[in-house]
Specification:
Double Stranded RNA Binding Domain, 138 residues
């Protein structure tokens, strides 16, 4: 095969690798299924993952854990606690040795289950933003 033909044959492969998806952080969600799911937690972290954050805290060395708990009390008040943590990685697993942690709390009286889930997402977003801001400030 001539060098020109080889170059033409390899061009699609090179172009595909250049357009590969950017690396993403490992995110584990340990939340109550009624309030949060894995995909939503990953999406919230993805919104906060800036190029500067990835440069300071490489994807191969760090990951995140989210925990959202709560529900309704006897007076039908939705109570939510959301925690976001940054943990070091060891290979493909996260080591429970939090480097940064933030927690957000919220209540919503007379909330529907969907409103409670929306509150949980908002509070987790606050906790994630607090962790991200602390990492970029330090």
């Amino acid at each position: 095969m001539t060098p020109i033909r080889l170059s033409v044959a390899l061009l699609p492969l090179i172009a595909a690798s250049a357009q590969a998806a950017p690396p993403i952080y490992t995110v584990l969600d340990n939340s109550s299924p009624a309030l949060m799911d894995q995909a939503t937690a990953e999406g919230l972290w993805k919104q906060q993952a800036s190029a500067k954050l990835m440069r300071l805290y490489p994807v191969k060395k760090w990951g995140f854990v989210t925990e959202v708990e709560g529900g309704f009390d006897d007076a039908k008040v939705c109570i939510v606690t959301a925690r976001a943590m940054m943990l070091p990685r060891s290979g493909k697993t996260l080591v429970y040795r939090p480097a940064k942690t933030a927690t957000a709390f919220g209540t919503h009286p007379s909330a529907s289950p969907q409103q409670c889930k929306t509150l949980a997402k908002a509070k987790l977003g606050e906790a994630i933003e607090a962790v991200s801001s602390a990492l970029l400030a330090g």
